[in-house]
Structures are given as structure tokens and as C-alpha cells.
Amino acid sequence: MTKLDQAIRQALSAEDAAFLATFEDQSPFHEAMGTFSGKWGVMNVFAAIVTFAMFAAAIYCAWNAFSVSDVRETVLWSAGLLLTMLAVAMLKMYFWMEMNKNVTLREVKRLELQVARLAARENG
Fold this sequence. Notes:
By secondary structure, the protein is an all-alpha fold. The protein has a domain at 58-95. The chain has five helices and no strands. The chain is rod-shaped and about 80 Å long. The relative contact order is 0.11.
């Protein structure tokens, strides 16, 4: 795979190589921040706010579960803790899927560019 990538890079012009460099792998921080741009950016910002709110609610539920003396209330606060942590986990999985989608889309765009450049060279 590495030899193929090197052969492709050698065959590309300097302009193509510079353009492909914009699609190189990013750090996890940049990938996470990339979820807040594009068409779904506002939705992802909202989901991040909800994630932090659910985490705060989970801390509140945990605090109350340990501070009450009645067994019924302890069970209810613990159930609230469980539900809020499940919500946080589901929202985290949503963000990981968004990051995965962005990485996959970036790779598809790289392949489209390479195929288009190859077709242009063969036709022209």
C-alpha cells in the first residue's frame, strides 16, 4: 500500500500534490473540531451542549444518590444516573460516527481526484 501511495505521489504534478496534502490525516483534535463545520455543524454543536448538560445531570444524580438516606430515593437517583450516562454514551458514539464519516468522505474525495486526474491524462 505504501509503495502504491508513493507511486501515485510521484506521478502527480506539484499542484496536485499540494491539493492532496489538504486531505492528509488530521489529529484526533482536528477531526473532532471538524464535526462542528459543514451542513450538520449546528446540530453537532447542539449535541455537544446536550452531552455536557447530560454529564452535569449525571453528576447531580450521583451526588444525590449518595446523599439521601431513603432506599427508594437512592434507587431513583441511581436510575437517573444510569439514564443520563447512557445518553452521554450514545451522544459520544454519534460523534465518533461523525468523525468516521468525515474521514471516509475525505478518502473518497482523494480517490475521486486521483481518478479524475488519471482520466484527464489519458484523454488529453
